Amino acid sequence: GAVVSQHPSWVICKSGTSVKIECRSLDFQATTMFWYRQFPKQSLMLMATSNEGSKATYEQGVEKDKFLINHASLTLSTLTVTSAHPEDSSFYICSVRSSYNSPLHFGNGTRLTVT
Amino acid sequence: AQSVTQLGSHVSVSEGALVLLRCNYSSSVPPYLFWYVQYPNQGLQLLLKYTTGATLVKGINGFEAEFKKSETSFHLTKPSAHMSDAAEYFCAVSGQGAQKLVFGQGTRLTINP
């Protein structure tokens, strides 16, 4: 069964609005979750590492004020795209790791379209 | 620093033929290597991984890969392609502890009937 649940699977929003994407670890407590972004026909780019109970670590070039990450519990991390613009349209995927050295489990992704 | 290069953005094979997807990596530390598969509009599913030990690793769906340190390669193979193998395949590298993954550009595999 699924290890990671990501919701919603797709969302359409208007420019200037904010969108929240949830990532839930179903089978284990995840102290660390990762958020990736994937443009059409391209690879996954790590956006940020979400740490439970502390601030997320953002990759170079990712605006932390635009992509707000909250990891308030061991099973839930949220990514909020604030003041969305059409160029934010993309496929966002979260992943979790059950323990050190274990492989990542990925959610099914969220396709965001900003009109 | 780490990087991954997947040779060939698109590979097409006939059903029943050998599948070979190429991956070369660069890593300043002993690498952990992974192959993931992605179906349209879905997340990634782990096919197999190499961390330490045996260099030939077997994964799900009949896939296997061999870690060759001298060639800095981790090519993915399957002896006989099936129509259901059509998907996007990503090679990825990380340092010990499977920390942040760095992905290759992906290879789209098409299976011809």
- How can the largest sheet of chain A be summarized? 7 strands, mixed
Helix and strand element order of chain B: EEEEEEEEEEE
Give the end-to-end Cα distance of chain B, rounded to a whole number of Å: 41 Å
User: Which percent range fits the helix content of chain A?
Assistant: under 10%
Query: Helix fraction of chain B?
Result: under 10%
Find the biggest chain interface.
Answer: A-B, 26 and 21 residues
- Tell me the Rg of chain A in angstroms: 13 Å
> H/E element string of chain A?
EEEEEEEEEEE
**Backbone shape of chain A:** globular
The total strand number of chain A stands at 11
Instruction: Return residue spans of chain B where pLDDT drops below 50 for at least 5 consecutive residues.
Output: none
Quick summary:
With 115 residues, chain A is mainly β. Chain A has strands at residues 4-7, 10-13, 19-25, 32-38, 44-51, 57-58, 67-73, 76-81, 90-96, 105-106, 110-114.
Description:
The complex is a heterodimer of chains A (115) and B (113). Chain A is built from no helices and eleven strands. Chain A has strands at residues 4-7, 10-13, 19-25, 32-38, 44-51, 57-58, 67-73, 76-81, 90-96, 105-106, 110-114. In chain A, strand 5 and strand 6 (57-58) form a beta hairpin. With 113 residues, chain B is mainly β. Helix content of chain B is 0%, strand content 57%. Chain B contains no helices and eleven strands. In chain B, the strands form two sheets. In chain B, strands 2, 4, 5, 9, 10 and 11 form a six-stranded mixed beta sheet that branches. The radius of gyration of chain B is 13 Å and the shape is globular. At the A-B interface, strand 5, strand 9 and strand 10 of A face strand 5 and strand 10 of B.
Keywords:
heterodimer, A: mainly beta, 7-stranded mixed sheet, B: 113 residues, mainly beta, 6-stranded mixed sheet
